[in-house]
Amino acid sequence: SVPAAILSALSASARGGVLFKGGAALETLARVDSFAFDKTGTLTTGRQEVVDLACEGDPDIFLARLAGLEAHSEHPIADAIRRAAAARGLKPVPVREARAVPGEGMVGVDDEGVLWAGNARLAARMGARDTPDDRPAPVGGLDRGTQTLVLLGRGARLLGAVTVEDQPRPTARPGLAALRARGVARVAMLTGDRRAVAERIGGDLGIAPSEIHADLRPEDKVRIVAGLTEAGRVAFVGDGVNDAAALARADVGIAMGAAGSEVALQAADVALLSEDLGQLAAAHALARRTARIIR
Ligand code: ADP
Ligand code: MG
To answer: What's the sign of the alpha-carbon dihedral 16, 19, 20, 22?
Structure first.
């Protein structure tokens, strides 16, 4: 049977918006000394805004196509693109057979053929390159700075791109500081986004550059989490479909509950229903106190 101390800790943490799937996860969290975080939708609000657009041809047609493909995605980037199209009064172009390529973007079919939207890795996969020294014409003029670049292409042809940007959650900086104050050995960021974007957000949050891992595919997140577990117990906090495998691999997987994906919630041991990342340090403290009582 579950000790009373654990039951009372589980219900206390639930009141703070931290839902453990069982007593074992609470006991493991007590031993965790490294926290790794996904960026988009986890350390940031996930509320992206379209900042800039560059394309060949009519920008409205371009954006309507992009929005038609992103209509099938639950990614925060997709939401920003749909809102930008709606703000211009555009009707999304119908796209069928749309599917997500986790950590890269979307692929689908419209009445002119295969359409894809995503990052440079997806562009390379589709045969359309996008590297700093090889910037195809429609995108060449776009200043990507520290924003996320979303490329739209048809087969190997690049049609254009938008840049999107979001901001750290207000509770991220104090939440990470609270974890460090508890003596947590490492706080790391694992993101599928570009390094320039990762360093802007990580820098705002006081994450050491050596702890920022960018341009990761879902399987890279798993590999890095596995590497961290060699030095101690690791909690991974994430929200996306692309985080599910890393959530399962970590000693304690913590899914963002309010806006996170169903797949992430299923893979995790803990759901963080609160928007407040400070609840992580509180849950860690509670887990440690409970472990001392039952030992
Ligand atoms: P993070 O790890 O920061 O949460 P993801 O792994 O979800 O980011 O996505 C990694 C990258 O893949 C994004 O930064 C973006 O470039 C691209 N991407 C993912 N989903 C989409 C989408 N629906 N539309 C466009 N780009 C996407
Ligand atoms: Mg995410």
So the answer is: positive
Right CATH for 4-45+167-294 from 3.90.930.60, 3.40.50.1000, 3.30.450.40, 3.40.50.720: 3.40.50.1000
**In testing the pocket of ligand 1, which one of 77, 165, 243 has its CB within 8 Å of the most ligand atoms?**
77
Say which DSSP state 122 is in: H
Binding site membership of 148 for ligand 1 (Cβ less than 6 Å): yes
What ipTM describes this predicted complex? 0.95
- Please state, in angstroms and rounded to a whole number, the distance separating the CA atoms of residues 160 and 152: 6
- Which structure tokens are listed for 41? 């939708």
Superfamily (CATH H level) for 49-165: Calcium-transporting ATPase, cytoplasmic domain N (3.40.1110.10)
Are the beta carbons of 189 and 43 closer than 8 angstroms? yes
For each successive 10 residues of the chain (295 residues), what is the average pLDDT?
A: 89 94 96 96 92 93 98 93 98 97 94 94 87 59 81 93 94 98 96 93 96 96 98 96 96 90 94 95 96 87
Closest-approaching ligand to the CA atom of 41:
2
Can 130 be counted among the known catalytic residues? Answer: no
Task: State the Cα–Cα distance between residues 149 and 133, nearest whole angstrom.
Answer: 16
pLDDT at 135: 55
> What is the structure's pLDDT at 137?
65
Retrieve residue 126's tokens: 């589709």
The pLDDT value given to residue 295: 76
Name which residue sits closest to atom 17 of ligand 1, judged by CA: 104
β 148-154/113-118 pair status: antiparallel
Evaluate whether 107 touches 114 at the Cβ level (below 8 Å): yes
